Amino acid sequence: MTLFTEPVLRRALTAACAERDLPVQNARLVHHYSNAVYVLPTVDVVVRLTTSRRTSQLLDVTQAAVAHLVHDHAFPATAPLDGCPPVRLPEGISASFWRYYPQPSAGRPFTSADLATLLHQFHTVSMPDAELPVWQPLTSLREELARDQPPHGLTPDEASWLRSTADDVAQQVLENTWALGIGPIHADAWTGNLLWDGDQPILGDWDNLAIGPGEVDLIPTWHAAVRYGRDHTWTRDFVDTYGYDLATDPSFDLLLRMRDLVQLTGPLRRAAESRQHLAVLRQRFDAIRADNRTARWVAL
């Protein structure tokens, strides 16, 4: 497994930018979790680096679909850089290139209503369904657990239990029926993936864009209330704006279990090089295995 360390990321960034004739001078790392995000300030470009095999394979399709959203539907989304296709590097890292949106140093935080507005609009947009992949639950986590090296921070018994649990939950999700139907989904729709474009909230991080059940885009809002301490107004405002109360859905508990497991992927990828991520991995894993449905989690 490629370690997502700063030297590895810098080498990958330099190689990818050389392929696309983009300057790396003064490039700065602005996000480093499941993916790494760099800003190239001299050309107002964002470079996203990922080690996910699935994300790498789908980058061309994803960027074309997001460009369709932005240009054909004027949907408020982060825009891929025109004429700059993704780069795949020998180290197993892939790079994609996006427009840079400078963020204000101060201002109001994003709300669940901001997210609900964007998702309601997105879920009603006509997309080229045939070109998008079919969503598969827990793909990134199961990919991490299938690597040759044992996952750092988990014992062999714990890793075996997690593989079995992820497989079981994924199978239950695949066999489920969905009240909101099947269509284009973002598949990681939480307020941390919102940005400002002037005074307009826009939706970013399109790595998981797919065709799947609409409920998948709603569960992060309720998960934020359960695991990260958002109060009742967080979900109430989402319901008032989007028009659907996921808490009344028969699939709610299954979706919460799935989202819990999703939240292991980032810490698992970085536990080998970061004590902070290792501690978060242990906190989340221990709560999941103990079936503690109410434990508050540390956010990263």
Automatic annotation (TrEMBL):
Origin: domain of life: Bacteria
Pfam families: APH (PF01636)
Domain named Aminoglycoside phosphotransferase: residues: 32-245
UniProt-listed InterPro entries: Aminoglycoside_PTrfase (IPR002575), Kinase-like_dom_sf (IPR011009)
Gene3D superfamilies reported for this sequence: 3.90.1200.10
Designated name of the protein: Phosphotransferase
